[in-house]
Amino acid sequence: MAGxxxxxxxxxxxxAFDASxxxxxxxxxxxxxxxxxxWNGEYFDADGRSLYRLYKKVDEDEWExxxxxxxxxxxxxxxx
Length: 80
Prior knowledge:
By secondary structure, the chain is α+β, with helices and mostly antiparallel strands. It has helices at 7-14, 21-34, and strands at residues 43-46, 49-59, 62-69. Helix 1 (7-14) runs antiparallel to helix 2 (21-34).
């Protein structure tokens, strides 16, 4: 697991031209663990870029985070 001081490396990997979904997810997990102050209720502010959570409905009123994306319009199918 990444530590508090790994943010810059995770951000660089997640914003690279050929960034993998794993790199984006690693940055999202860092925010969930260490960066809740950057959550505005819709996305994490990653140095001026918006990192959105992707959710999957688990129950009537319960959702589970299954990944992260830079695009607000990203579909869940893109993670399959």
